[in-house]
Amino acid sequence: MSSSLAQPLPWLLLLLALAVFTAETASAAELEVEPLGGKAPQREFDYFALALQWPGTYCQRTRHCCSNNACCRGSNAPTIFTIHGLWPDYNDGTWPACCTKSRFDPKEISTLTDALEKYWPSLSCGSPSTCQGGKGTFWAHEWEKHGTCSSPVFRNEYDYFLATLNIYFKYNVTTVLNEAGYVPSNTEKYPLGGIVSAIENAFHMSPLIICSKGSVEELRLCFYKDFKPRDCAVGQDIKTDMVSKGSCPKYVSLPEHASLGGPGRDGLQSWVSDDAAAF
Ligand code: 5GP
């Protein structure tokens, strides 16, 4: 008797579990965050980091040239901060990656290609990995690894690349630093605190700066999901850690672009075909 009264309980629990599972599956589908390779779906990101790179520093490691490396454009090589990527990040310092199976399709962004070549060029000859196990362009890597995790803010490649360009134009770091007297130089060193203050005063956000051998290599600006500016560091501990114990010394340089010409112009670099450069 008592056992027959207890019967409905497991069924109720099962139904409840099914309802929860269905609701979770539906919301994951709405976010287009599909699990990859059987992995659990990744939760929605907390904020965006716009990662910019300084070609004057990055291009110093160029050892060979190829047509898709902007360091190799001679006098047309970029002398401004260029885009590395727009990254959906978590507040705890981690980030989601490769969130959907969406493959990069260059046709989707064909109307943006000229702007992307100029402001979001690759500064490397290598072919980075893509999420589906292959190799691709810098843009393919950035879309598949980071862009696919920007849902529900962006749901397609075109919107992601267009919005990144727009936010980059709106927050022009190169102009702000130049106006504060921090101009590209192979001899000057500038106070890191002065560079940070110039950005804070102009954009009301605290950036994150990454150096390589005492030169600024990357500068990150951070945004809420509605693209209002926010500090890149979350807690005070992380902030102190980033500014004082990070990769930058107290005085940093912002090197002018090293002159890497076209084929045969320089004894240190060799010019190789893009295919060969990928390996
Ligand atoms: P991420 O930091 O976006 O996850 O990865 C960048 C990947 O793209 C690396 O595999 C790197 O070798 C490749 N890559 C290609 N061009 C560039 C470039 O201009 N800058 C950086 N930082 N990485 C590039």
Summarize the structure.
The chain has helices spanning 2-6, 8-30, 55-58, 113-119, 138-145, 157-170, 173-179, 192-203, 236-244, 274-277; strands at residues 47-53, 64-65, 82-89, 190-191, 208-212, 215-223, 229-230, 251-252, 270-271. It has 279 residues and is of the alpha+beta class.
How would the blueprint of this fold be written?
Layout: H1 2-6, H2 8-30, E1 47-53, H3 55-58, E2 64-65, E3 82-89, H4 113-119, H5 138-145, H6 157-170, H7 173-179, E4 190-191, H8 192-203, E5 208-212, E6 215-223, E7 229-230, H9 236-244, E8 251-252, E9 270-271, H10 274-277
Parallel strand pairs: 2-9
Antiparallel strand pairs: 1-3, 1-6, 4-8, 5-6, 6-7
The structure holds guanosine-5'-monophosphate (5GP).
Guanosine-5'-monophosphate (5GP) is lined by residues 53, 84-85, 122-124, 126, 128, 138, 141-142, 145.
